[in-house]
Amino acid sequence: MTRVNDHAYAQRDIAITAVAGRFPGAPSPQAFWRSLLDGRELIRDYPAHRLSGGVPFSPVAGACYVPRGAFLDDTDAFDYGFFHITPREAVRMDPQQRIFLEVCHEALESGGYGRGSDAGIASVFAGTRKSGWEPYLPAAADATDAMLALGGNSPDALASRTAYKLNCTGPAVSVATFCSGSLVSVHLACQSLLAGESDLAIAGGACVRFPAHQGYFCHRGGILSATGRVRAFDQTADGTLFSDSVAAVLMRRLEDAQAAGEPILAVIKGSAVNNDGARRAGYSAPAVDGQAAVIQRAWDRAGLAPDRVGMIEAHGTGTSIGDAIELSSLLRVFALAQPRACALGSLKTNLGHADCASGITGLIKTILAVQQGIIPPTLYCSRPMNALTAPHTPFYLPHAARRWETAGSPRLAGVSSFGIGGTNAHVVVAQPPPYAADNTGHESVHLIPLSARSPEALRQITENLRAYLLAHPGTFADDVAYTLQRGRYPLPVRRIVLARDVPGMLYGLTQERGVAVACDGLIDEQRLAMATAWQQGGEADWSRFYALERRRRLPLPTYPFVRSRLGNDMDEPAA
């Protein structure tokens, strides 16, 4: 792995400390990343039984029907009890709100924080859209049902409901800029952190489409693909297709994340947002000048020369006009880069177009690429656009996953997202700085608190933690204890393990006891009393253990939601 100098990072840098999401065919970022490295297409043909009743009526004469799509599974399942939401309210919530709430909670816990976080002022910024779910709402029996449906289906509520349920007291802003909404949200989160109005920010987006299991109609002159396949930057490209995605990232000022010992997956060096204005062919048409300007501004804010870029995650919709305009803007900004030094990627070749969530999904791909040092392939580009075959083009299309090595400087990438209406966003992403491992472990009895809403969930938490510890043998016991004490909200069903080291933890986690003592020798009576009181429902002042010591927050397994199906038939509108 490339080693980088810590001096490559600046005071205005923003750390990405966690990612979370649900994607078609991939229920987690880890599964999503494996699919990208394998070059898998996540767009599926619809099964025959879904089409047995015929296809929907096309409003456009001469349109052809394409039975393909990329959709989330189990969108009617939700752990409403975990968030103290009644079934009556949950069944009237747009699935975009339900899933985004779970994803944001996963991001918080993966970054080492829970509800009621001790990070300071937490904020939520979310790209939003109408899902088309309103016809599936159950009929309102009274005014209360009507009010629940109003709040549960307004795109405006996506960020504020999340802030309410996760106790985020900073700005809660839902962003509606069409396709660029979630990457604009990332930019706004950066600005909020840099201005000091937030100490921690969740940024993301949610796109879940209804009807859930139908294809689409395409017609001559439209943007949708007749072949059901996205071929970004290829001469044979015939359009895009739409998909689902719900994703979020956790963001902190870099210096704060480092001081708190938090996991850092990547660093945002700069970001920018603009609009194309009036100098374009029409309201929905893109413009070279606007796109080039926002990219250049982001790199200027990063204080970096664009010729250092190693990867661009493009908007790349697979439309011939849109891709040609985007490629022209990229060539204008990155003209001085070395020939074929920069990989050009488009997640839409794997996934399709996730509308307002496409930017955050592409950002997560890029975060994992700069962290892991691997560039995933771009699919279905057999005849690249002419500008990509010129001798001195700075770009190449990666046809297979490849190692990404640099000569001692951080890996650098850019992510673009452009919205209908001309609102453009670009973010500059860098490899994370090296972690200064000054923790050698401390020989004392550590308290490992685990809690859940049900015995079933507590058993799953226990199993997941054991699996994590076995997979990460270099983990320090005190970091595990610190993360679980400070980074998890206490729930009613509890158990606690007392151990001096990770082998002791592993043994204690196998014991069917509320308070499992898994260490030899004398145990501080105060610690044992504290553990017993906490396990029985009391509160604990964990800070007494760490007043003078630095600890790391680990990306431990997050809460295993116990979801219930809410009964909505997502294939048929309500009667």
From TrEMBL:
Species this chain originates from: Sodalis ligni
Biological process, per Gene Ontology: DIM/DIP cell wall layer assembly; fatty acid biosynthetic process
Matches recorded under InterPro entries: Ketoacyl_synth_C (IPR014031), Ketoacyl_synth_N (IPR014030), PKS_Beta-ketoAc_synthase_dom (IPR020841), PKS_NRPS_Biosynth_Enz (IPR050091), Thiolase-like (IPR016039)
Lineage, broadest ranks: Bacteria, Pseudomonadati, Pseudomonadota, Gammaproteobacteria, Enterobacterales
Protein known as: Ketoacyl-synthetase-like protein
PANTHER family on file: FATTY ACID SYNTHASE (PTHR43775), SI:DKEY-61P9.11 (PTHR43775:SF37)
Family: Belongs to the thiolase-like superfamily. Beta-ketoacyl-ACP synthases family.
GO-annotated molecular function: fatty acid synthase activity
Sorted UniProt keywords: Phosphopantetheine, Phosphoprotein, Transferase
Superkingdom, taxonomy of origin: Bacteria
All copies of domain Ketosynthase family 3 (KS3), residue ranges: 11-431
CDD domains found in the cross-reference section: PKS (cd00833)
